[in-house]
């Protein structure tokens, strides 16, 4: 979208993936049904939360199903699923227990993913079989007390011994999922690296660290708001001797390793949260269809209908994003980091909204523990924070889009460059099968013409041409929101189930047509609401709240609250 490339470069968006990977669809269906029935019949999320751990019986059953090595190659003891097949399975886990999902995800989605992506053949053969079987657990160790979103500021240090045979690792990591239970850690540390000029600089490198090396200790499990059954703990490294052959990737390239692991794992979060949304929507719909008030079922009242409709739309978009991104990855698209980031932002916020609305539909019953929805809401809160906060990822989306059209400095100094950035977005329509003119005949089903037109009309004409130099996060956030909405509309329209099922007369055709059309209009209304941020007229009328917000934030708390707390 941002680079202005068309043609074959955008085939990953069309068609929308209709098969769960290149291998037999039946395999994936069986793999998803097995954990579905198992988690439904054996796993008890409420009991897991009460114990603040996953019951042994649940873990053993998941090990037997191969759930700890879903994407590990078969020759190394795993199942060897594609990304799309993996997304299908974790969506099922997301329906039942996010705490279990976090434990599995922290293990394979990021814990040992670095070994899969960057490990040598000997490293893979040594570690992956036991990790895939669940005999050993893995954890991803990046965050430190002084290093959260700014991962480059880590202080953990690894120094090469004079003999060159091992690194001495010292430092500590916080809030590590599986930190207290893992035996294998992917650890990021500063290492002295000699530049071609002869200058020595500290750069981040990645290492495979075993608890058995000695000097690795874990703190007590953290007390958390949600996902209580997953283990989260500090991990400390005290003069740990790490063999030189356990360097993961190249020396000094650890930041790239970390970013690649996180980008590679984000699609799984979107698919898991699509499953979570599906589960709570079922509860809301079931309650609305059976609850009577004022002599009628509450499902017949407009306020409830609006809630359920919006919940269904958000689930549809999230699911579409998850499978488009996973399909891109399976097609070996070289760069999917923007799409993965967008899917993480959208899914985590949509899942929170949907679950909150489910509680509202259920009323007082939704607030009760026995219903289980309040636990899901607490579990969901972390998803907007870890693996990259949504705030930082929004800046990443906006700045990346700007930088591909010219350096950030040029954009800040020259609004015309931003206009060029906008002009490149006009080609979005053709990239997803929608021409830039008004005629859409033969591209999408005629029933979706208006939705396709809105992609172009509501955003691409006005937003970036009206935007001022984006050197402020107020503007960057809204640029990112627009990009997210554009991508959301694109994947929904490109979801061939929508246009193809209309043409083939499938039973779900009208329902999916309504989802697509209504979502497009929702996005259009959102743009009309926010466009004042980018118009001179809005600023003259005082409709933009950017300056007042800055002033309020800079004031002492007692001034911001008008002296109420004084």
TrEMBL record:
Residues 252-398 form the Acyl-CoA dehydrogenase/oxidase C-terminal domain. It comes from the Eukaryota. It is an enzyme of class 1 (oxidoreductase). SUPFAM superfamilies: Acyl-CoA dehydrogenase C-terminal domain-like, Acyl-CoA dehydrogenase NM domain-like. Residues 471-525 form the ACAD9/ACADV-like C-terminal domain. Residues 46-135 form the Acyl-CoA dehydrogenase/oxidase N-terminal domain. Its EC number is 1.3.8.9. GO terms for molecular function: fatty-acyl-CoA binding; flavin adenine dinucleotide binding; very-long-chain fatty acyl-CoA dehydrogenase activity. Pathway: Lipid metabolism; mitochondrial fatty acid beta-oxidation. Residues 139-240 form the Acyl-CoA oxidase/dehydrogenase middle domain. GO terms for biological process: fatty acid metabolic process. The keyword Cell inner membrane does not apply. PANTHER family: ACYL-COA DEHYDROGENASE, VERY LONG-CHAIN SPECIFIC ACYL-COA DEHYDROGENASE, MITOCHONDRIAL. Homodimer. Homodimerizes after import into the mitochondrion. Belongs to the acyl-CoA dehydrogenase family. This is Very long-chain specific acyl-CoA dehydrogenase, mitochondrial. The lineage of its organism: Eukaryota, Metazoa, Chordata, Craniata, Vertebrata.
């Amino acid at each position: 979208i941002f680079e202005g490339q068309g043609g074959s470069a955008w085939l990953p968006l069309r068609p929308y993936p209709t098969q769960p990977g290149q291998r037999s669809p039946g395999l994936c269906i069986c793999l998803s049904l097995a954990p579905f029935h198992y988690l439904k019949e054996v796993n008890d999320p409420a009991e897991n939360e009460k114990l603040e751990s996953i019951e042994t019986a649940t873990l053993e059953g998941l090990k037997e199903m191969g759930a700890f090595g879903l994407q590990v190659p078969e020759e190394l003891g795993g199942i060897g699923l594609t990304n799309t097949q993996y997304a299908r399975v974790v969506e099922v886990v997301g329906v039942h227990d996010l705490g279990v999902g976090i434990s599995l995800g922290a293990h394979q989605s990021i814990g040992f993913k670095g070994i899969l992506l960057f490990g040598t053949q000997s490293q893979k053969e040594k570690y992956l079989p036991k990790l895939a079987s669940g005999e050993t657990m893995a954890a991803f160790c990046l965050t430190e007390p002084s290093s959260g979103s700014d991962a480059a500021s880590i202080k953990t240090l690894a120094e090469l011994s004079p003999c060159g045979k091992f690194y001495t690792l010292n430092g500590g990591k916080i809030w590590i999922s599986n930190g207290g239970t893992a035996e294998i850690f992917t650890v990021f540390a500063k290492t002295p690296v000699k530049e071609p000029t002869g200058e020595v600089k500290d750069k981040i490198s990645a290492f495979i660290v075993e608890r058995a090396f000695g000097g690795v200790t874990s703190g007590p499990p953290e007390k958390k708001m949600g996902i209580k059954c997953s283990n989260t703990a500090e991990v400390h490294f005290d003069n740990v001797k790490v063999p030189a052959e356990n360097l993961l990737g190249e020396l000094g390239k650890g930041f790239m390793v970390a970013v690649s692991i996180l980008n590679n794992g984000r699609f799984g979060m979107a698919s898991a949260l699509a499953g979570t949304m599906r589960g709570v929507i079922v509860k809301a719909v079931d309650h609305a269809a059976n609850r009577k008030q004022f002599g009628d079922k509450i499902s017949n009242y407009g306020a409830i209908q609006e809630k359920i409709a919006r919940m269904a739309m958000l689930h549809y978009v999230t699911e579409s994003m998850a499978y488009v991104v996973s399909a891109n990855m399976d097609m070996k698209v070289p760069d999917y980091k923007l799409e993965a980031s967008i899917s993480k932002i959208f899914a985590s916020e949509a899942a929170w909204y949907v679950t909150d609305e489910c509680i509202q539909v259920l009323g007082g019953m939704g607030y009760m523990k026995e219903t289980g929805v309040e636990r899901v809401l607490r579990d969901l809160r972390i998803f907007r924070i870890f693996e990259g906060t949504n705030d930082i990822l929004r800046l990443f989306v906006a700045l990346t889009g700007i930088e591909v059209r010219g350096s950030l400095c040029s954009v800040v100094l020259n609004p015309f460059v931003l206009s060029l950035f906008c002009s490149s977005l006009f080609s979005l329509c053709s990239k997803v099968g929608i021409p830039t003119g008004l005629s859409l005949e033969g591209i999408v089903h005629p029933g979706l013409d208006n939705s396709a037109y809105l992609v172009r009309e509501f955003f691409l004409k006005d937003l970036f041409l009206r935007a001022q130099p984006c050197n402020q996060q107020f503007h960057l956030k809204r640029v990112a929101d627009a990009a997210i909405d554009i991508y959301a509309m694109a994947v929904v329209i490109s979801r061939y189930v929508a246009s193809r099922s209309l043409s083939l007369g499938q039973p779900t055709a009208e329902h999916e047509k309504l989802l697509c059309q209504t979502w497009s209009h929702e996005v259009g209304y959102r743009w009309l609401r926010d466009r004042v941020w980018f118009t001179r007229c809005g600023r003259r009328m005082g409709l933009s709240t950017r300056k007042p917000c800055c002033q309020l934030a800079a004031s002492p708390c007692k001034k911001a609250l008008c002296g109420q707390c004084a």
